[in-house]
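Hey team,

Filing this mostly as a record. A colleague (T.K.) asked me to run one chain through the structure pipeline before their review meeting, and I want the input and output archived in the tracker in case anyone asks later how it was produced. No errors, nothing strange. Just documentation.

Input sequence:
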Amino acid sequence: MEFNRALAAVRRGVHAVVGWVCAAPGTYIWLFILWANSRALAEMPDHVRDWFLLSNSTNLVGLFHNPVWVLVVSAFWTEKPSFLLWLVAFHVFHVPAERLLGTRRWLAVVVCSHVGATLVSQYLVWVGIRTHTVAHSRAFTIDIGVSYAIAGVAAVLAYRVPARLRWVYLAAVLAYFSVPLVTSHTFTDFGHFSAALIGLACYPLTRGAEAEPAERRSRSAAGSAAG
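Output structure:
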């Protein structure tokens, strides 16, 4: 009797986990790849890691020679193997966004934010080099990671926050990304702020997003497992 109860509890737990993951498959696939890549980076010697990240960076050189490759690959690596930080950030922003918007709409926001903010920040680098206000070495710096996508998704979630808290949440997001823009004003800061604005511009993707495929997959997976 006790064994059967314990087994039933385990099954319910497994069903709940399966349903949760199936409601945000894109996020968890992305997280798994980041985890594997973080492990790989941690095992690399410093000089090899720097060379690898530089070769796959969305700096001016990478965007000029192989733009599609670096824009895609750079979204699956981080400069420092700090997976725990991204694990938390993905659950705070990406998981609820994918559940609320559906995988396709969420992915559209991710791509627009990552690509758009990268192009904005690197355009500013290019202008700086052309006007001799930025060192030419900036064209070769490491520029890689997932933070632009997080900024865009964090912003687009403002449209799904309850109305009474929406403006507070939006003010917090904009303050978080605009304060560094004023205090340190690096090209990465411009990129993060641009990504947040791009996320806000994705409002049309939030309309009619209830009961998107991700949400239905969650219910379907839970129902199938229970059966």
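Quick notes for T.K.: Confidence is low (pLDDT under 50) at residues 211-227. Residues 2-226 form a domain with the Rhomboid-like fold fold (CATH 1.20.1540).
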